[in-house]
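User:
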Amino acid sequence: MSEQNQRKRQRASTPEFQRRVSAASLSAIVNPDPTVLIPSPTFHSPAVESPPAHSPLRLEANLFGTRPVEDIVRVVADFMYTHMKDRTNIEIEGKLGRLVDKKSGQRVSLPVVSETALNDDKFTRFESNMTVQQHAMFNKLFNQRVDETRRPEFRGSRVEYRHTKEIDHFYRINGTRVRVTRNKETGEVLGVITKIKVADLNIYSPRTKLDIRITINEEQPLDMPDTEVHKHIMERHKDRLSYKQDLWSFDLTQVISPEHTVGPVNPYATGPPKTAPATTTHELELEVAHPEVWMAERAKVAANRPNNFHEITHIFLGNLKALAKRAI
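Assistant: Predicted structure:
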């Protein structure tokens, strides 16, 4: 049997999900030596085989026969593993924007030359916003990928497109912030939730125009509030273009927030209440459309079973890095 036929038979015997995940990886990841000084709950890997004898340059992976994983991938994987545990109604997103110094209002400039995860954000804030020109460029880029993946010769996963217009109304009920989302055109209620922040991770990227923020939240469903008794304190209009592929939804959104009152109104205060001005932002988020798949892989890690947890992490982060590198 020829070598080509052997490869075809091996590919045919590989489960579709496993094959697709492996093919989508940006590079081969081999888990680090489990004896490294900084332990990681998500990486326990065997030694790496040396290149074949016919390779023009035959070098060992390193002195210990292992290939260390990129630190940034391990940091994100450990962050995910830690904060995904036992969560229900989980929302996982990666956002593109800018890490800004709270005092100066300018993008931070750290003494590093490559992407770096921050463990302290008390002096910075993340602005999930970009210019109109950047937004338009990403829109064009995604539309090109939709067309490319629809060609007959394309063999990967297609990119599907959807355009939605929604309006969010926010209520403060017994100290809980409640969000009611409706279809802007029909008025249909699409969801009533309260969002609970779990954790976030900021990644500074000095070689690109945009930085990265990874967030994990829980979106707990609630009953519809009585809108005759409770008046909304804020509203938000979302014009969204969603591009979906495999586990991911790439969401380009223009968000318009009209002027609104900030905080509770003091009945003894004189003069008008404090208000926040109207704002328009242009956002790009990568949402995990099927978090249950990632959660299932996490459970396999915890049970010490073969899994695709680090592969999914690598693809998720790789998508965000690839988008950041294309920002104008």
